[in-house]
Amino acid sequence: MAGTGALDGKVVIVTGAGRGIGREIALTAAAEGAKVVVNDLGGAADGSGASAAPAEEVAEEIRAKGGKAVANFDSVAEPASANAIVKTAVDAFGGLDAVINNAGILRDAIFHKMSVADFELVIKVHLMGTFYVSHAAARIFREQGSGAFVHFTSTSGLIGNYGQANYAAAKLGIVGLSKSIATAGGPATASPATACRR
Questions:
Q1: Angle of CA points 82, 157, 78, to nearest 5°
Q2: Which CATH number do you get for residue 69?
Q3: Model pLDDT for residues 35-75, shown as the tens digit of each residue
Q4: Which of 20, 94, 99, 110 is deepest in the core (most CB within 10 A)?
Q5: Domain residues for 55?
Q6: pTM of the model
Q7: How many CA atoms lie within 13 A of 112 on its CB side?
């Protein structure tokens, strides 16, 4: 795989890596020499359903180009399954150097018509998912004195957007979470970068 080798030997988890932005992140990380855990539940854009195919296809694409990757199908939205994502990295590659929390879903609706379930599920996947996976990885990062998080926010969170109260709340919450992680433990704690999408 062609690249600069900036991530040679690093172990990287990319959540929501079966399609879209996450897929491109996983492919780029692998091209730069990373060993990649391609995590994706394989559901639809609204979070319904599940399939191993998207994560498997990306992992196979990486391997076909000479890179190293394993597929993982655990949900980010529960603590136990988030821990399993991190365990996959350690079991497959012997460690962990970075977590890119990209996984997300959309359930847009004007506020007064938005169901409680749709609000809670978007918060669960975006905000709680970012917390759960980061929390599982943070213990490893702290013990080894190194590690990195990349989290995703959105203009919907920063300035608001019609029909996206759930998504906006989650994405602005991720900003606060990222800032708190960065200040939590001094130099032994990874400092997150926060990217913006949409």
A1: 15
A2: 3.40.50.720
A3: 999 999 999 999 999 999 999 999 999 999 999 999 999 99
A4: 99
A5: 11-197
A6: 0.93
A7: 0
